[in-house]
């Protein structure tokens, strides 16, 4: 769709340049990536229809021609990549290579950076800026960026280029730390990196990681180049997903690799916004050459953006499984990371107050990996006259005042947490009852069919099929009801540790459930255990142990009825050999065929111990990300196993 008038076009160019300048120079987000892409595409289409119009570099220059650059001049330009979004465009690009092979790798959603080393010491780090000059961030990088060390093990002199990014967990940490320091939360992980790496005097921790996509030297291919970079200690972007690390020659092979990366997007611990397609051989790159803004030998296939702007319409207040207040934003439908979202989570009430959120405000919604969609911050220009939202002083379900002794307000009335408790127990990491989400649990509670977890197993197929959800206009179908009943049957086969976790006792979770099952073996033994005996378990302590004892007593009747329904009340020992007995494994990232919970369960079923941190007792670290701090620590002390190799070992 093109702009009709020159005035509309010029105004849109100004908006695009303003957004690009903020994006590249400060890290502030005044417009989401999705909105910017739509605007830039309209500008490009309008320019094609009206060649005499001037887009001031939006479609032809790095950073849309709006970056102020910096004090550091790059020896060779740091270019951008052309965007492609369809299979036909992939085919066209592969055809330009003339039969030579190309590579497909992740497009990290971070910040481009160039670092210089002299005799193994970091001497300069600079951002891309306008492509010709960039901002000096050497001092900030020296504070610590995983994968971009201050000193190498050798005396190499040269330059490395790549992307600085935050993992999903690092973004959560950085954003929480920023709010605690009195500032607004980050909009997304890229904005967090951009703001953090420029901040000389920040007082809070913002962990970051580096992955290389170029290194100086003479090589015949990109794979040779990246092997050299990895040997120096720089994690290579092309190795982050091993299943696509290799040369491809046909459009079908390239498309399959793009789909493969996209299929992993939900479970990756690092943020990506696309896949990069690039020529492998240097001779091909020299033949195709460079444009003023982009190389002709590389392109970026963009996935649906993980951040979008929408309007906040309401904030729902609910009570979670342990009586904790939960806030949920009701938003205008918006497409984020491949799905349409109408609701998103919010942080605690104080965070909402600190952000000044108001009904009718435009907000950013972020969804990355398997993270539930979340409102991160207000964004862009806001309407005047909005009144900031304030949380209720009492529990909306029972009218009792909140316990505000911590940021996570609680209601101590047991009946208030029924919906949250059952929804949690039915989740994938607990009893894994497919199809039983919060909406159906709410309908069950409103119909008086459930009052606790054990009563869920009394509900019949006919009762499920007569339920009406939402405003009462939607009936639970026979197919969904059948899936739930099948899930309830399979729940009786779930291991003992998951039953413990499903009880939802305060300060417990999937790890504590495994620890308790491993230590006490049966529910009878666990219920008979003293606070001191439970506290002896590593990482438990007296406070957690007291909550476990109190929770088991409070749920005594529920536990007895769960046992009567046939749920597992003991660790099943099949008498097979325990090949991992006495061994301790730390899994960082994903293992093919397993979730975070099932891989730890499998380790323990084979007699081993699953730990969350590397120590002197660790047998091996399982990870594909050799540039992380955890991996670097492990490299000095213990073996590192590839996830695919470990999966074969577990099988």
TrEMBL record:
GO MF terms, alphabetically ordered: DNA ligase (NAD+) activity; metal ion binding
Protein name: DNA ligase
Enzyme class (EC, first level): ligase
Entry similarity comment: Belongs to the NAD-dependent DNA ligase family. LigA subfamily.
HAMAP family from the UniProt entry: DNA_ligase_A
EC numbers: 6.5.1.2
Gene3D superfamilies linked: 3.30.1490.70, 5' to 3' exonuclease, C-terminal subdomain, BRCT domain, DNA ligase/mRNA capping enzyme, Nucleic acid-binding proteins
SUPFAM superfamilies in UniProt: BRCT domain, DNA ligase/mRNA capping enzyme, catalytic domain, Nucleic acid-binding proteins, RuvA domain 2-like
Binding-site residues for Zn(2+), renumbered to this chain: 395, 398, 411, 416
Catalytic activity: NAD(+) + (deoxyribonucleotide)n-3'-hydroxyl + 5'-phospho-(deoxyribonucleotide)m = (deoxyribonucleotide)n+m + AMP + beta-nicotinamide D-nucleotide
Entries under PROSITE patterns matching the protein: BRCT (PS50172)
GO biological process: DNA repair; DNA replication
Active site positions, chain numbering: 107
Residues where NAD(+) binds: 33-37, 80-81, 105, 128, 163, 278, 302
Record-annotated BRCT domain positions: 575-651
Described function: DNA ligase that catalyzes the formation of phosphodiester linkages between 5'-phosphoryl and 3'-hydroxyl groups in double-stranded DNA using NAD as a coenzyme and as the energy source for the reaction. It is essential for DNA replication and repair of damaged DNA.
Top-level taxonomy: Bacteria, Bacillati, Actinomycetota, Actinomycetes, Micromonosporales
Keyword list, A-Z: DNA damage, DNA repair, DNA replication, Ligase, Magnesium, Manganese, Metal-binding, NAD, Zinc
Needed co-factor(s): Mg(2+); Mn(2+)
Organism expressing this protein natively: Actinoplanes lutulentus
